[in-house]
Specification:
Elements: H1 21-28, E1 32-36, E2 39-42, H2 44-63, E3 67-68, E4 74-76, H3 77-83, E5 92-95, E6 101-104, H4 109-119, E7 128-137, E8 152-162, H5 165-185, E9 190-194, E10 205-211, E11 217-222, E12 228-230, E13 252-255, H6 262-269, E14 277-284, E15 287-294, H7 301-307, E16 313-315, H8 318-325, E17 341-345, E18 354-357, E19 363-368, E20 378-380, E21 398-413, H9 415-419, E22 423-425, E23 431-433, E24 435-442, H10 443-453, E25 455-456, E26 459-460, E27 471-475, H11 481-496, E28 501-504, H12 510-520, E29 524-528, E30 536-541, E31 547-551, H13 552-577
Parallel strand pairs: 3-7, 15-17, 17-20, 27-28, 27-29
Antiparallel strand pairs: 1-2, 4-6, 5-6, 7-8, 8-24, 9-10, 10-21, 11-12, 11-21, 13-19, 14-15, 14-16, 18-19, 21-24, 22-23, 25-26, 29-30, 30-31
The protein binds adenosine-5'-triphosphate and magnesium ion (MG).
């Protein structure tokens, strides 16, 4: 491809709303363009990378036994009603001319389960793994980061069907390995973490996280045993929360007029948030419950429901809070609270002389102490984990880092097959529900996650496996005969050897060509300049910009060998993670 013919509209200025480096770079380099919030077009370079990402994800899923299909985006309401997911908030809904409602596929458990329940009868047809690479629609509340969190995006979603748990374990392990290999081949550092299952449901599930400071997800990792979990899911050991030996001060009341938030109260009382205990009133399976966490911590509702075996947990209404505590929202506390079960986070055990709401509007208690002033009905791990928390699996300490979720695998077991009554006839002659797994890889999110994790001040740095071109020949002066001849020769020889190469022969200053090559992030740059008259060119890697001279006769062979080495390095990385 010649750069003069390539459509890559570069930008000097990017819209201020583009905050993430990858988003800015993809816009600047003309890889993507925005149509509406969370809706993007892929221009030639972006689409090329996307196709290469897809190809790798496809190859690895095929190798794991997946069979590719393509399911519809347009899905009748009845199907969603069978599983109770018609009301999921991110589902896009539309009505057709005859008044029938449809959902636009946000994930395809319903459709694939429908296919299998109609056409798979016997255990002999299992295991079965069906997958697709397809556009998904989700009405995200906060589209962000360009294609990182879009409302229309491309996912590889795979679904496994087995007759028993052992079968599911094996299918899950195969897909886990397939995704690990795919991400390694995409040249990113990633970790697999325990995760929360969200709208998909099911028990065991894990996420692939690309480590990046700008990532939306907080991930905790134990420095000793390697336990890793999304903060949404992460457990915390009950360790190191010995009762404080601080002598108890007399209980006191302070007027805190209109001070409802932690910031207001602690600012007003000049106390650090660590010395305050938040009291959050919930309704759990129809009964009131007060949950206590330290003022600077967040309650983790999903973990609390799981830890306390609750089916339904909801914030109590303001009216209910007034009824239970006798005070407005913002002034609840455990002291004197009646007919409400009190559950506290382990950490509270180590606190003394703290501040709580006084169950009286516009007042807080000071110097509250456990046992002396109130009793706790149950201790549990109910807060969001953070840096420095004790590991639940060993004696280690967990460290927090940020990550971008790029893949998510689930053991959904019989959640969908039961809801949709999808059964098979097993060896013993009995009807059983299919045991399912589902596996999602964010194909279009990877278009951004790769440069998010690999860029510098000058632009993107693509790994060889998915780069928009493997090499670029920079013809610095197209009017110079020797340079033109050398550049075209290297370009053609590389093409003959199967290299995906770009020739920048544009009538532009050499500075522009260097800048664009760096911005686009093509991994190998071949500079054809003055040295061409001596039969030489310079080759350098985008990664470190270290240049080396090559004689023209050997240039193509050498460059091919550099490209092969880079490709091999990524494949070896895949072998190491699997
Ligand atoms: P998130 O927590 O980021 O909203 P999710 O957990 O809802 O994602 P899954 O249903 O697990 O997403 O989807 C599987 C994969 O699809 C994710 O790991 C991610 O890589 C990708 N993905 C999900 N939502 C989006 C989106 N809005 N835009 C781009 N990719 C997405
Ligand atoms: Mg997910």
């Amino acid at each position: 491809m010649r750069a003069s013919q390539l459509f890559f509209p570069t930008l000097r200025e990017v819209p201020a709303e583009a905050e993430l480096p990858s988003h800015r770079l993809l816009l600047r380099a003309g890889f993507i363009r925005k149509l509406a919030a969370g809706v993007y077009s892929y221009l030639p370079l972006g689409y090329k990378v996307l196709k290469k990402i897809e190809a790798i994800a496809r190859e690895e899923t095929n190798a794991a036994g997946g069979q590719e299909i393509l399911m519809p985006s347009l899905q009748p309401v009845e199907l969603w009603q069978e599983t109770g997911r018609w009301d999921v908030d991110v589902l896009f809904k539309l009505e057709d001319r005859s008044g029938r409602w449809h959902g636009l596929g946000m994930t395809h458990e319903e459709v694939v389960t429908d296919i299998v329940r109609r056409d798979v009868r016997s255990y002999k047809e299992l295991p079965l793994n069906l997958y697709q690479i397809q556009t998904k629609f989700r009405d995200e509340p906060r589209p962000r980061g360009g294609v990182i969190r879009a409302r229309e995006f491309i996912m590889l979603d795979s679904y496994s069907f087995d007759r028993d748990d052992e079968g599911l374990d094996l299918s899950y392990r195969k897909m886990r390995r397939a995704f690990s290999r795919a991400f390694a081949r995409l040249g990113v550092d990633f970790i697999i973490v325990e995760a929360e299952s969200g709208a998909i449901g099911g028990k065991d599930n894990q996420e692939y996280m690309v480590l990046a400071g700008s990532g939306e997800d907080m991930v905790l990792r134990c420095d000793q045993c390697g336990y890793a979990a999304n903060a949404e899911r992460c457990e915390i050991a009950d360790r190191g929360y010995e009762p404080s030996d601080e002598p108890g001060e007399p209980l006191d009341v302070a007027d805190t007029p209109g001070m409802k938030t932690i910031e207001q109260v602690t600012g007003f009382l000049k106390t650090p948030p660590k010395k305050l205990v938040k009291t959050l009133i919930y309704e759990a399976d129809g009964k009131p419950i007060a949950a206590l966490v330290r003022g600077d911590r967040d309650l983790n509702e999903a973990k609390m429901s799981r830890m306390l075996d609750m089916d339904k947990l909801e914030m109590a209404s303001p009216e209910m809070i007034v009824k239970l505590t006798g005070a407005e929202v913002g002034f609840s506390g455990p002291v004197g609270l009646k007919n409400v079960r009190i559950v506290a986070d382990y950490e509270i055990r180590a606190m003394a002389n703290f501040v709580t709401g006084a169950n009286k509007t516009d007042a807080h208690y000071l110097n509250v102490n456990l046992d002396r002033d109130f009793r706790v009905d149950g201790w549990a791990d109910i807060r969001v984990a953070s840096d420095g928390d004790p590991c639940p699996k060993c004696a280690g300490v967990m460290r927090a880092t940020r990550g971008i979720e790029v893949g998510h695998i689930f053991k959904i077991e019989t959640k969908y097959s039961k809801a949709m009554d999808a059964t098979l006839l097993d060896e013993d002659g009995r009807e059983k529900h299919f045991i399912m797994g589902c596996y999602g890889l964010g194909v279009s999110r990877m278009l951004a996650a790769v440069p998010e994790a690999n860029h510098d001040k000058d632009g993107m740095i693509w790994p060889m496996s998915v780069a928009p071109f493997e090499a670029v020949v920079l013809l610095l002066n197209p009017d110079d005969e020797a340079q033109l001849g050398a550049a075209v020769r290297v370009y053609e020889e590389l093409q003959e050897r199967g290299v995906d190469v770009l020739l920048d022969e544009r009538d532009e200053r050499s500075g522009v060509k260097f800048k664009d090559a760096d911005l686009l992030g093509i991994p190998v740059q071949i500079v054809v300049g003055r040295l061409a008259s001596e039969g030489k060119v310079e080759v350098r890697l985008r990664r470190d910009k270290q240049g080396r001279e090559l004689v023209l006769d050997e240039a193509a062979r050498e460059i091919v060998s550099i490209i092969e080495t880079e490709k091999r390095r990524l494949l070896e990385a895949a072998d190491r993670v699997s």
